[in-house]
Design goal:
The relative contact order is 0.15. The chain has two domains: 163 residues, ATPase, nucleotide binding domain (Nucleotidyltransferase, domain 5); 208 residues, Alpha-Beta Complex (Actin, Chain A, domain 4), CATH 3.90.640. The strands form five sheets. The protein has a six-stranded mixed beta sheet, with helices on both faces. A five-stranded mixed beta sheet has the order 13-12-11-16-17, with helices on both faces. A three-stranded antiparallel beta sheet has the order 5-4-6, covered by helices on one side. It is globular. The chain starts with 5 loop residues before the first strand and ends in a 5-residue tail after the last helix. α3 crosses α15 and α4 packs across α5. By secondary structure, the protein is an alpha+beta fold. Helices cover 36% and strands 19% of the residues.
Amino acid sequence: MEEYPVIVIDNGTTTTKSGYAGDDSPRSCIPMVVARSKDKNSTQNAYVGDWALGKKNMHFSHPMEKGLITNWDDMERIWNEIFFIELRVDPEENRILLTESLFNPKQKREKTTEIMFETFKTPAVYLIPSHCLSLYNLGRETGTVIDMGSMSSCCCIIDGKIDRNSIKKLDVGGKEVTNFLQELLERKGYSLSNKIERVNVREIKEKLSFCLTNNEQKMSSIEEIIKESGINSDEKYHQNYQLPDKQNLAIGKERFLSTELFFRSKIETLQLSGLVENKGNEKDKIMINQKGYDKLEQKKVVVENENQIESSDFNSSSLPNMIYKSILNCSSKEKEKTQKEMFKNIVISGGSSMFEGLQERLTHELNLFWAENAPEIKVIAPPERKFLAWVGGSILSELNKLQNKWFTKAEYNENGSSYVNIKCNDFL
């Protein structure tokens, strides 16, 4: 097959990154939004990406939800914008490497390749989970990778292959943190309901939110710090944020309360901070216990409890719990040795992993699972982790590691789109 250049596209629910293989960073980061006029007589079909942001009197839609494509027409518009406007390349003259979710079903993989071959006429395509590329970026083939975007997902990768039994997810990501931050600000009396104001809330989150650590105050627990936040912490954590209309928002404890969703339920966070009354009823207790692990579970040793969680149990209810369960479910022959290796190589990646303090907080929370003899726990948070998967794809393509693995147009014509599930299966 002729050696066509490679375009790398990291599809994300909020932002899609794209660029040329061999580059150190993506050329384009396009917001995943499509806007259509509410005026039925409008001649403008749709605005895509940056062109859609800030438009008024429009219907807004998003092509992806929780890492999966849900609107193919809009997704095709996004890809069209990337090829012909953002990168100014002809997809007929480029191979396309696309990232995908760990939970991407076969039908969506097939539809993706069908569009690439039939609509954009690309000569070859390859689909690969973003987790593999993030690890490859760091020059590793073994480790635990957490991808944090619109949701959080985790898997163990052993010698370059995903251990399918280790795949776990947490339905908390950037959108949930943004929504909670908006709720916290509205509790202070600010009105932030329309689309443009929500964009501002997301910007506040990205610039000002952080994760609490035990270094914040000399206290024995995160819980005590949160309780203290309900009394007098606004002054300590105070930051001003000016909206485009010149309105100033005074932001205090909301900066760290918003990210507590990664570690505990919303109701528990609100109760600990004193924003809602804890009446101690059974419903509240059930919701509080949704953090994902209690003090007793924290004392258990991973290796001794390797069979207590079903491999089909994808869902988790806190970030540390998700990682714990993922490593717990490793199906390696040398399980104890592999688990120790996994705890020493925990990589966080994605846009929602950029919160200050997350690395330290995760390390602290994971250590709580042991009363004694805890394994070495190392959480790796590269500064460029927002683009970790895209750069990994850039490196992988440039080194020709996929030389004979590409799903070609000829193979598509001969075998159909379902052949992608055989051809693009080297890392699964």
